[in-house]
């Protein structure tokens, strides 16, 4: 009589088994990953060190950049614990994206912006985002207690919940129902709130100048593109019965790789204040580097040593 053995490791199938594509995909993803880290890290450092970027708007950008960098990093890892990490930082992104409220107040009520978006309110919103992200604990706890007796190959490029549940040696319909009833409404409601906020923002500008309306329109459209790219795939993946499709892996690339890369470009780099602060930061670093190099040269010249210290 055969006895089922407990699976101790899981193998990720990856995006494709085509040998030619396997040679290209790692390089492409490596470039995108480094670009994502560079863009978000530069934003974090700029907001943290700049004296001019002290408003709630840039506080939210700081939080979003941090979540983007962590979210992009966790999806590249191959540990079972990253099921939690990916969804944790993904959920933080969802609630930080509700900073559309901040955008609405900044555009439509600029004179009351400071009074409404107090630092106390900003802190409460971010704390709520982190606390709400803990909802994944129950799902991960149940998933990790499931028996796995083979096969051990996950048909995905990172360890997501739905592909993982398919490998369990028991009925997982209850857990999948928990995932759909939990993650699905969060994605749907957040997306609807964002969409309504942008519509209200644009509608409230109907009596403003044509130049102001056009500027706000382009800002809202660029923001909404990121929202669609992030929430569209999330809704497609987490609001349906326990079924997997070949296109799932491609769809998840949009919100795990696409939005962390696009966010620095759309939310930050089109902002003049952020760009000016980045220029000042880079100029300061270059100046410090040149000054340090001059000190080294002077030390070598005066002391006559090839091995020196600053």
UniProtKB/TrEMBL annotation:
Tagged with keyword Cell inner membrane: no
Membrane-topology annotation of the record: Multi-pass membrane protein
SUPFAM superfamilies attached to this UniProt entry: Family A G protein-coupled receptor-like
Gene3D superfamilies, alphabetized: Rhodopsin 7-helix transmembrane proteins (1.20.1070.10)
CDD domains reported for this sequence: 7tmA_OR4A-like
Transmembrane segments: 24-45, 57-77, 83-101, 113-131, 183-205, 217-238
Source species, domain of life: Eukaryota
CC per GO annotation: plasma membrane
Annotated protein name in UniProt: G-protein coupled receptors family 1 profile domain-containing protein
């Amino acid at each position: 009589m055969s006895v089922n053995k407990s699976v101790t490791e899981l193998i990720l199938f990856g995006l494709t088994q085509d040998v030619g594509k396997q040679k290209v995909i790692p390089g492409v993803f490596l470039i995108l990953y480094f670009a994502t880290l560079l863009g978000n890290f530069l934003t974090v450092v700029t907001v943290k060190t700049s004296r001019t970027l002290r408003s709630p708007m840039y506080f939210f950008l700081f939080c979003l950049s941090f979540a983007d960098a962590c979210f992009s990093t966790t999806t590249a890892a191959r540990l079972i614990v990253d099921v939690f990490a990916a969804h944790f930082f993904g959920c933080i992104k969802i609630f930080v994206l509700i900073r559309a409220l901040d955008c609405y107040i900044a555009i439509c009520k600029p004179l009351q912006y400071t009074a409404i978006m107090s630092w106390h309110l900003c802190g409460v919103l971010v704390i709520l985002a982190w606390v709400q992200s803990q909802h994944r604990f129950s799902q991960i706890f149940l998933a990790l207690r499931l028996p796995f007796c083979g096969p051990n190959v996950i048909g995905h490029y990172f360890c997501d919940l739905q592909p993982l549940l398919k490998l369990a040696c028991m009925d997982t319909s209850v857990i999948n129902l928990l995932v759909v009833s939990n993650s699905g409404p969060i994605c749907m409601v957040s997306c609807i709130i964002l969409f309504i906020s942008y519509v209200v923002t644009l509608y409230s500008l109907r009596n403003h100048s044509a130049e102001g309306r056009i500027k706000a329109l382009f800002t809202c459209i660029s923001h909404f593109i990121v929202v669609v790219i992030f929430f569209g795939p999330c809704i497609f993946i987490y609001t349906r019965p326990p079924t997997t499709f070949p296109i799932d892996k491609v769809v998840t690339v949009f919100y795990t790789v696409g939005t962390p890369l696009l966010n620095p470009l759309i939310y930050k780099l089109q902002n003049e204040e952020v760009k000016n602060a980045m220029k000042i930061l880079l100029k300061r670093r270059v100046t410090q580097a040149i000054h340090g190099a001059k000190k080294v040269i002077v030390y070598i010249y005066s002391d006559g040593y090839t091995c020196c210290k600053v």
